[in-house]
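Technical annex B. To support the medicinal chemistry partners, we prepared a structural model of the target in complex with zinc ion, based solely on the information shown next.
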Amino acid sequence: MNGDLRDLYQEIILDHNRKPRNFEKPAGANREAEGYNPLCGDHYTIWLELDGETVRAFGFEGSGCAISKASASVMGTLIKGKTPAEAQQMYETFRDVVMGKVKPDLEALGKLAAFAGVSEFPARVKCAILPWHAMHTALEGKETAVSTE
Ligand code: ZN
């Protein structure tokens, strides 16, 4: 990865950490899940408003490191308006990329590519995946707490 690209990705993460998008509970939320990463102390509640065919709204609250907060924020901007199946597909793709299981197609990933470098830092992989894991649980309709352990 060249330096300019690395700087761009760093900027996306810093921006979303500083100004997280959808950092509140949506009025119409009908799914909820909690995500907790004891290794880092990341702890979030995420909400979805599902109308059957579409993820109408997303929101989250909580606290944690820059990677986890930016991951939740970027995820929210990407899954809104998608079908649950599309959101699940994005979850699987993102998980494989940050776990280093696949060679990332940076162009196809768009903003998610900002997190591809996390695969080089095993301790941060759970931070990046945590919000996605919680979103996945919320889509499945479970309302239990999620832990990365
Ligand atoms: Zn973290």
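Notes passed to the chemistry partners:
The first strand starts at residue 31 and ends at 37.
Residues 122-139 form the longest helix (18 residues).
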